[in-house]
Each structure stands twice: as structure tokens, then as C-alpha cells.
Amino acid sequence: MLSIKEIVENTNGNLINGNESDTVSSYKIDSRDIIKGDFFIPIKGEKVNGHDFIIDCVERGIIGYFIEKDYINKNDIIERSIKINNKICIIEIENSQEALKNIAIYNRQKHINIPIVAVTGSVGKTSTREIISSVLSTEKNVLVTEKNYNSNIGMPLMLLKLENQDIAVLEVGIDKVDQMSNLSSILKPDICVITIIGTAHIGNIGSRKKIFEEKIKIADYIQNKKIVIINNDDEYLNKLKSDKYKIERISIKDVNGIENKEYIEFNKKIYNEDQHIKIKVNGIHNIYNALFAIKIGEIFNIKIQNILKGLEEYKNFSRRFEIINIGNNIKIIDDSYNANFDSMKAGLICTNLIKSKRKIAVLGDMLELGDFSEKLHRDVGKLFENLNFDILYLIGKNAKYIAQEAKNYMSDSNIRVYSDNKILANVLKLEMKEGDLIYFKASNGMKFNEIIDFIK
């Protein structure tokens, strides 16, 4: 919790109105989320300027807000705000986003003794952070990333929540070069987890090698424990060496007795004792998430029974390989939160292992792939050489590339390409049969949630 005085001092701001002894416990950047007592940070985006919603936030009871010096309606906003609430705290700053960053840096330094586990990687960041949190929360007070607050705006907001927790588990996402070093300098992690080096945002960053080089910068400002935990089965990460921090390696080779049905079970040593582990999710890739959580549990001396409890109690997020029964023995697998080649491949392989009368894949475009888009969509089509799907529905401008490759392994009549979500949804609704298993995967921008909601 920061005082207005601390906020002003660490943003080089000017307190136009209000009491510097007032304290702030909650910060918001979205006016729609405002509740009484929040401090509003109006971010100027490409399409929307948060300053335009300041008065609405004042009327809803915020304690204060930033306002940029050059905002065209600054004086009018200030005057109207004080008329609504003459005690409201108004801090004039140069740039709201920079001010947010600076108070986040200050609050991290203020709570530097709270260890931070930073989770990054091309695939599995959210699932990994959540299963780690599930294990740690059995014994510790844990701060964990909310929503998708993992980048240059969201992560500082999470750092402002550091207060009296035992540990923080924070997700770190990047989509461009040099972003990771900037985030790492603010975060100052104690332990870094790197899940996999894949193709997410390859269009912006340039290659998997460059993605690897960016991801490992998460350890640029590592402190205290100085541990980096990597997926040693990844062809890039397994080459990582450093004399600046300790490297812990997890691998699927460390487990045995894998049973991959609707739930996963396997055997693994914890504190060098053989244990049988159950996770209520599907997919071999989730074993890696569990291995990261076990390693973190060991580092923080979580009892064996609580590590096992945390793993079994972990629940996957909606739209991330979420299995939904919609009646008539028809199951939907909603994996449509987002997509890149690696996550689409993992999802298709997992679905392929589940027994059903018919297997249907509904795939849409993977976005932000740049010049790699055609190749990676073709690579998805090639996956069907080793998959047993009965029907493939496709939508998006890159769907033709998936279709062109998949037709080498499936009948043309069983590959359907559409250009409109509503048409596809109606066709699916008409053609579904008892016992079907239908897997949905696409980037979030393809709005597959609309198709799934219609079918449900």
C-alpha cells in the first residue's frame, strides 16, 4: 500500500489536489472495472484514451487519478473532478504508462524480500503459473498473476499488489525484441521458469533462436535464490549454460507409468521418494507443468503431501483444453483461448488419444506469425499424417494451407473450409452426432468462443 506522497515522489508528479497522506490499495486501468476507492491510471492507447473516462471514474468513487500534462481537456477535467469530490487526489505526470512503471519499481523495491517466481515461455505460461501457485498455496500466502496481466502494463499492476505475501508467482509475456530485459529490470525475480521455446510471436521476433535469446533475458536481473528452471527436453533450452545463476532441469524422462486419459497419472520422485501423481487435466504437456510445480515445491520446502494435494486440486482455466459435455454423449474440447503451432500440435495429439465414436477438429488461423504464417499452417496440416480425425473444419484466410496439406492424409470430402463463423456454427450444429468429440483451436482473434457458445 503506497501513500499519495510516495506516488508523487516516485513519478516526479505534481499533486494538484488531495491529501498526500492518503493511501492507495488498488489500481485500475480499465474504467469498467472501477469500484469505490480505486486509483485510476488512464492509459493512452492506439484506439482509446483512458483520460476520456476520468469523470466517469470520479463519479464512481475513485480516490484519485493520474492526468498527463499535455492532455487537451486537462483543466476542464480537473475542475469538474473537484466539483464532484473536493478531496480527490489528482496527480499531474508526464506519461501515465511511465508513471505506472515507476511506482511498480518502487513497490517491488519496498517489498524486495518477497521472492518472485517468474514464468515465461512460448506455450504453457498460464497453466504453469497456476499449477505452481496451487502447490505453493497449500502452505503459503501466494500472489499470482490475474487475467492476462503479464506484459508492460499488466505486470506493473501485479507488482503494485505486493504487500504481505510469502511468495509471488508472476507470468511474463513478450511479443517483441528487448521487451524481456525491460520487464526483468522491473520484476527482479528470484526464480525463473522457462517452459518451451516455440513459435508464438515469431512474426515480430524473427526466429525461434531469437525467441530463445529474448526469453532467457528474464534472468538479466535475477536475485537472491538465482535459480532458472528449464524444460530440458526443449532443443534450445537444453543448451543453456550460465555462471550467473543455478540451472535446474526438468524432463519427461524423469517420470514413468504415464496414464493419459481424461486425467493424467504418473510416477515421479519427490524429495527422492517415489510418488504416484494425479492431475485432473488431459495432455502430456501438462506433465511438464506439474514437474515445474514439483521442483518449485521442493525449493520452498513444501511437504510431500501438500505438493500432491496442490497438483490434484489444480483446475485448468476455461477455454484452455476445457472439456465440456453438451448432452447426447457429445463432448466439446474448448482450447480456443489462443493458438500457436506448438499449442495446436499438443492439443491435437491430446485429443487424438481420447476415445470417441468420431473425432472432429475445428481449427482457425494462428495469428501474429508474420512471414512464417504459411509454413506453420502447412505444418499443422502435416500433423494429420499421424492423427485419426474423421472430419476437419477450417476457417480463416490461412485455412487453405492446412487443408492443402491435410488432404494428403484425409478424404477431401471430410475437410471443410468456411469463411464465416455463423455458417460454420450452424453446419456443426446440424452435423453433430451422438458420441462425437469436437476439438476447437484458434487464436483468440478468430472469436471461436462465439461458435462454441452457439453450439452449447
Fold and architecture overview:
The radius of gyration is 24 Å and the shape is globular. It has helices at 4-11, 54-59, 74-84, 96-110, 125-136, 154-159, 179-187, 202-205, 208-215, 285-299, 304-313, 341-352, 373-382, 399-406, 421-431, 448-455; strands spanning 2-3, 14-17, 23-24, 27-28, 39-40, 64-68, 89-93, 116-120, 142-144, 167-171, 191-194, 227-231, 246-250, 256-260, 264-270, 273-279, 322-325, 331-334, 358-364, 391-395, 415-418, 436-441. Helix 5 (125-136) runs parallel beside helix 10 (285-299). With 456 residues, the chain is α/β, with parallel strands linked by helices. The chain has three domains: 2-95, Udp-n-acetylmuramoylalanyl-d-glutamate--2,6- Diaminopimelate Ligase, Chain: A, domain 1 (3-Layer(aba) Sandwich); 111-313, Mur-like, catalytic domain (UDP-N-acetylmuramoyl-L-alanine:D-glutamate ligase, 3-Layer(aba) Sandwich); 322-455, Alpha-Beta Complex (Protein-Tyrosine Phosphatase, Chain A). It contains 16 helices and 22 strands. The longest helix has 15 residues, at 96-110. The strands form five sheets. A six-stranded parallel β-sheet has the order 9-10-8-11-12-13. The two termini are 43 Å apart.
